[in-house]
Amino acid sequence: MTHTRQTAPGSTPTGVDGEGLDARLVVQRGSFRLDVALTVAPGEVVALLGPNGAGKTTALRALAGLVPVSGGGVCLDGAALDRTPPESRPVGVVFQDYLLFPHLTALDNVAFGPRCHGASKAKAREIAAGWLDRMGLADHAGAKPRRLSGGQAQRVALARALATRPRLLLLDEPLAALDARTRLEVRAELRRHLAEFEAVAVLVTHDPLDAMVLADRLVVVESGRVVQEGTPSEIARRPRTDYIAQLVGLNLYRGTAGGHTVRLEAGPAITTTEELSGPVFVAFPPGAVTLFRDRPSGASARNLWRCEVAGLETHGDQIRADLTGELSLAADLTAVAAAELGLQPGATVWATVKATQTHAYPA
Q1: Residue 229 C-alpha from the chain's centroid
Q2: What's one Pfam family here (predicted)?
Q3: Is beta strand 217-222 parallel, antiparallel or unpaired with respect to 225-230?
Q4: Which of 23, 48, 79, 166 is close enough to 74 for a disulfide, judged by CB 3.0 to 4.6 Å?
Q5: pLDDT score for 17
């Protein structure tokens, strides 16, 4: 994946000589207000990540010109697109449900874009055939959408978007409609094509794995605004909201540090290895939690809380316990351990976490 120099969102474009995307998207819809700044360099893939209703798709549609902005603007490669109609923008879009023309073959679906941009029928079909070959779909050129699998239809939609050589590629939940096995294969292919894409790519998803695998940088949107951005590893290591913490599988708390002790805003204190002062976040994975049926005697863990099991669910090959009480947290344990502890909703347990397994950082 290509990594390029980045600047703060909404500042000057990140590419050389004004290349890339520099946008501030302000959209007012009833009581909902979207206000998101995006600065993306050529060759960079940015994922807009967030819960349902956060404004991700609205932002994508505003970039495409399908939703009017009530403030801000969109600048691509130094040119303002605010007054440019959607069909005239150098933008390719892959929608969640593909929106292929049902009466056209795969070849003619892909050729549609070049034809709209002035290519002759023969030239458009030549371009389309080349893209279908790159997608491994040369043998399906004559098939209509109803004869294609979900993965094949997604590849045709991507080929159609790329065939016009867009300067901005927008992908709206491109893998959401695929089954798990197909999703795995298409995600790997999509990563390869995005790595080769030399212009700007913006991906909207609520799936953290899609975002982590496909994007160079994540922009997390909640309630219409950016709450955190950074590389996937930065986001995973230092989440700043409960939504992000749940996304990356961490217990997250906010409090005030004094040395190695963090006093939580609502709850007990947590002992950490980091020595900090002032407002901080503390995070630890569910796998760092050890559960006991009775209060452990002589336990070395400085962090010990009396909790109650609120719920249990299968999480991969483990059991995840949702705990409330002195501290609300999630704990992962094996099915055997859960059975030995006699875990069930309402049961009382003692939870411990070693200070070395916590991670504290400034809020």
Answers
A1: 11
A2: TOBE
A3: antiparallel
A4: 23
A5: 56
